[in-house]
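Reply to dn_fold:

You asked what the input looked like. This is it:
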Amino acid sequence: MKVYERIQRICQHEHCRRTPLGRIGGSGVGRSFADRPRSGLDQRLAKEDEINQQLQSDLKVVTDKLNVTQTDLVTARKQDKTATKAVDKKVTNLETSVKAELATKANTDDVNKLNGDVTGVKTDLDATKNSIQMARSEMGTLIARNHDEIDQLRHMGQRDYFEFTVQRKGGATKVGTIQVELRDTNLKKNQYTINVLADDKSFEKKNRSVNEPIFFYTGGSRQALELVINKVTKSSAAGYLSVPKAPGAASASTATSGK
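and this is what came back:
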């Protein structure tokens, strides 16, 4: 309508009346011309609506893809969190296991050490018990009856001990700083007769009993030497010589028969 009114005002001029445009304005064709812009607007609106629908369709596609991406992201985050928890749990379990193994090893070492200490104490107690069971001589020394008891006395460190075996027909046997000769044995009475050579002197001990100590002194000795026979046979006798401990003294050894 506005366009039509404008055309009417323009056509009022005389110059315009003479032109074809004025003739057009005076006819009914002007109304049809006024209707043409509205038809173009409808086309634009239709096109914009079509574009809007296309945009909405594209937006829906993008939104759907975005939702999928967000879902995947959330899932990935959950999986990562779950994996992290699993790793932390494994690390914690490993640490606990290592600590337990170390504690077990420490306990085992302590137990082994304690067992060693207990064994040592038990050995000492056994030695003490055996020492108590040993008879004492008139000189106050303990009398060993076999090799094990001789070792126990040797470990006490108070005297030196020389173990020996002397043969009846083997002649003199050197034991420490002395020599001994076996003259006779009596199995029924468990007795023996022996000759001792010390400091170029000799003396004989007749019919002495097994485990009965024989005491004597040598030159320069303030304490007595002790000779004990623990076992006799028809042809031999076995025992030990106990010598007072002295600096530089020879260590205990086993003597054999010989001249």
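The CA atoms of residues 14 and 38 lie 30 Å apart.
Hope that clears it up.
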